[in-house]
Design goal:
The protein contains 21 helices and six strands. The chain is α/β, with parallel strands linked by helices and 501 residues long. InterPro entries: Membrane-Transporter-like, SLC26A/SulP_dom, STAS_dom, STAS_dom_sf.
Length: 501
Amino acid sequence: MAVDARLPRAVRDSDVVAALRSPRRLKTESLAGLVVALALIPEAISFSIIAGVDPRVGLFASFTMAVTIAIVGGRPAMISAATGAVALVVAPIAREHGLDYLLATVILAGVLQIVLSALGVAKLMRFIPRSVMVGFVNALAILIFLAQVPHMTGVPWLVYPMIAAGLLIIIGLPRLTTAVPAPLVAIVLLTAVTMTAGLTVPNVGDEGDLPSTLPQWLIPDVPYDLDTLRLIAPYALAMALVGLLESLMTATLVDDITDTRSDKTREGWGQGVANVVTGFFGGMGGCAMIGQTMINVKSSGARTRISTFLAGLFLLVLVVGLGDLVARIPMAALVAVMVMVAVGTFDWHSIAPATLRRMPRSETAVMLVTVAITVATHNLAFGVVGGVIVATLLLVRRVAHFTEVVPTESAAPGTRTYRVQGELFFASSNDLVHQFDYANDPDHVIIDLSATHVWDASTVAALDAIETRYRGKGKEVEFVGLDAASAERHGRLSGHLGGEH
């Protein structure tokens, strides 16, 4: 398969075949995968603890998710693995009913994600406003930083200069060379110093035991009946929705960073396939990881599926084959990497004084609500849903106030004409009934709707109520100027809604 040189560089870089033919690109993808794999280990262990399962369950999930999504996903270079959001959702089923029920839940969640994606759930992304996306990114950055705080409190004093050294390497090295990812250099150097000097500082091994065997295919040992389905279905549906939302939001973010477009529907069902595979290999399931994706795409410069695949492969090799060495990586090195990821992820422009002065207050409010809910709940999905709800309410309120009724001159004697301006829907049409002079108007009233549009049944009911009130006064009202869609809706619903008052 030849790569068209006329294509934009971002498009060419996303092509796996082109990357395999380019030693420079292949090195970038490989090193990016290694950095991500190192960063995944403590995260997967931490999420396993949140879910109340053995660390191997989280590590195996990260391996199978990354490898599978690299093949079937729709967003190249995006990292999927065990995540905190999914861990929070499935923790109750694991705690109360055990690992087998957890695995059954993960498999069912994957099936639901495939079905929802086939039904077009990815198209709902168009209804997420930019202010929610900005809030989502900023909240993510805050959560990434907050996740590092426990590793910086109650620790030996040596941890702090090590973190500072790691930050200096990550910030300063790219100014000298970009041949090797700065985060990888920081991890290797700090690990070498720790081992050579015999420093006693918290390391990856302190987070939990690493597996010594490969994951094995298994079928959850649960009764396959309606009782089991009723038990796991609520958790599976919640996991499916949270995973899809977080994955599709991450894919949109990577699209913006790389200036490319991805197949969101394929990404959705790809997440489902990855979770099904993960469940059958004893993993706790997961979704896209924004922090690790930022390491891969932004910090390391990866652009293809190769980096995602290698991240999963390296993870397995590291924890199974080189577990003793990996366990000695100081947490300070990984904290430095994640702190820089948080700083790089945050949209600093969104809180600049000049931006805040220029931006409408409603947009800023939506962004802040998204951040506040996400940080308070530690759940990105809750924050996004809350932000969308607030954005919708503010939009409805703003649009509703644009509707007005204006009396105009009428050429015919004994006739009064009103002109309605603005959009008519449930929020704006509720007050429409009270804007006419029923008692003093002449016997014939014309209501001109040419400058508006009838959007819903609430508006038709309001028009029926206006007609009923005029009829009660012995007067006739005529609606004119309806566009084709409004006329069809009015003709179909008028007189059939009941409660015309």
